[in-house]
Amino acid sequence: MTHVILLRMRIPTYLVLCALAAAPIGAVQADYSWELAGRLGQDESEQDVESDQSSLSGTYYFDPVEDGTGPHALAAFFDPATRVSIATSKDKTTSPTGAMLDETTNYSVSGQYLLPRSKWFVGGRYSWGDIDDPFSPPTTVLSIDLTGQTLVAGKYLGAAGATRIQLALDRSKTDTDQRLTVCIPGCFNGIATADVTTDEIRFDVMHVGPVRAATYALSGGVSDGNSDLVGSIAFLPNPIVPPFPNQTVNLDLGSTRTYFVAGELFPLTKLGVRVGFTRIDGENLNTEVTDVEASWFFRRNLGLELNITRQEDDVVSTDGAALRVIGRF
After folding, report:
1. Labelling 212: which of 80, 110, 129, 313 has CA 20 to 30 A away?
2. Are 276 and 265 in contact (CB under 8 A)?
3. Closest Cα partner for 180 from 167, 193, 168, 171?
């Protein structure tokens, strides 16, 4: 998807957000059925490799959400409802010289069905996309396709839904096809495929409560994931040299365990400040991510979120910043 197409997709969203901002205060309702959001972000590593991100999302709540119970940012937590969401995102990575390294485009559809009396809920998510990887000798990438499926189940505990527990099962796949040339000593052209599948189970909990005149939110969780690779190389016949046999490979890429904790304080219903920490322990790489986020709903139906991150692993450190605009009606 080109930047022109993305621009055309953004226009309706931002027109709606501007209309919400310009609406008279007396016309703002205490509940909403639609939530639209647009996000722009950028990451930069120590090697000056930059990643520019953009995304759009829309959520429809079948039972309108009331935002008068607590902080505006937690309205859907205090008054959960059956919902459906769609989203699209683009991530473009460039080298220090400005040359494109890759460009990832992703789309997703998700939903949640809530049992109003018991507060049990089930949900799911399906995503698909691709990575545009430029020509890189001695191979030519033909296609890199991304797919993902997630199943979620959980429950809101407490009369006001002050605690939420959730269990998720996730599977993601990256299917790569590329053309290559191998010379041993004769030269053969071939098509190589590499399919990486990652399965993950995740448990998380979130609790919200009062502290004097303010509100706090605590969240945390743990997940276990494992990745496998199935690859093959099919060589094309070469009339000059004897045939070279096709190759197949099956590899266990190892497991990872992820821990995360976060705390957020809302001194006002319009304002929130959040600090989070994530650690990923892998067999080959360990990563730590620290993020700080501030949310401000300067109107009940219009808000901003500013997020700053610092990611460090065994190889490189990356700093990032992102701004998200939220509109509700």
Report:
1. 80
2. no
3. 193
